[in-house]
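anyone else get weird line breaks when pasting these?? whatever heres mine. first is seq + tokens for prot A
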Amino acid sequence: MTGIQAKRRFIVIALLCAALGGALLRALSEPGSTARDVGTLLMLLWLPIIGNVIAWLIAKLRRPVTAEPTGFEAGNAFRPHALVELTLRAPQLPSENSLIGEGEHHCALVVDNEGFSARWVVPPGKAFRRGTPQTLQVEFLKPAIALPRFPRDTEFRMLVAESFVGDGRVLQLLGHD
């Protein structure tokens, strides 16, 4: 149990004890007395915690959902779905203007407000600088969903992490044109 969980548990137990003490005080006090009103207030301290206790019980009862794969599996062969022209935006700091080296790169290609997981490969022995248009092959994680949104000449933006790092245009759908 983490420190935060222990503190939360202590707070819930303390408020439960205050509510039980309030109920006892209310039961032993005469109607209309100040002690009875204080007992009622102590009982009301428990109300904000009830929602948290119910949420905790539901979480304990709920079965864990099996997660779908969240990305490309390592070792799977690259099967391109589209040929695109891609221009990575120049970085704002000159020190970050390094070559984009060979290998596999992951991103999301965004059309309007929809993003689609994709990967692209820089062939062995090749590299390029940001700001220069490159013709590259792209593979989508879920091609059945993505390909209808990427017909020929569709313009898109490339999202990596939380930043748009490039712009591109679909030149051709591979195996579909």
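and prot B, same format (seq, then tokens)
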Amino acid sequence: MNPKVKIIILNWNGWEDTIECLESLYLIDYPNFDVLIVDNDSKDDSIDKIHMYLDGKLEVESKFLSYNPDNKPFKYLEYSEDRYPQVDTSEGVDAKNLYILKNNENYGFAEGNNIAIKIALRSNPDYIMLLNNDTVVEHDFLNKLVDVAEEDDEVGVVGPVIYYYDLEGRTDVPSNICGIVNIKHYPGYYDIVDKDPTVKPGNLECDWVSGAAMMIKTREVPIKYLNNQLFFGNEDIDMCINLKKGVTK
């Protein structure tokens, strides 16, 4: 049995990135995941554009994948903020359920994700995956993350290697493998690749995992929410540092 993963994608005025991310997700090999799209009160018609994509009326243009018209339209459930108390993500509409949550305002990265985390946890998933909307995933990324996490009960948070979308025409340059903390040197935290560009991708223990693609094991991890006092930035570092220290809330 494949563990259940709830993937959370936060959108704010970024529907083009979001639908490319979604298209890549629905091409992956992993069979047991749901997606929660959280819109932080976008003003660019994001919801309408996402609807058009899900209904098969708007194609994705991407250099990383070919648009698949055969799996459209997608079934989905949509909720406005006043209905969040009623959302039950254990009752879906398809094998891989898709939910759209519409926030009444821009709550920032931390609280925007926390709203979806709270809803996702109601159905007791094995993992919560935070995924930036401006990412494109490889077909086996979730299989690899789950395999690593399941091998060791001490592993609470895992993340994939993240590559630049386009760095002077290249797509094979790592932007983040994982992070280290050294408070003696400003700003106190670093991507490992910034500190040592020769580091090779692999299973590395680290101080923090990027919130751009962070998978949290709900069974063992006592902290499941981001620090909402941080509107944008360092939420991932704050969570991981506290987990390593043994902080429980």
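btw re prot B: DSSP finds six helices and eleven strands in the chain. The mean pLDDT is 89.
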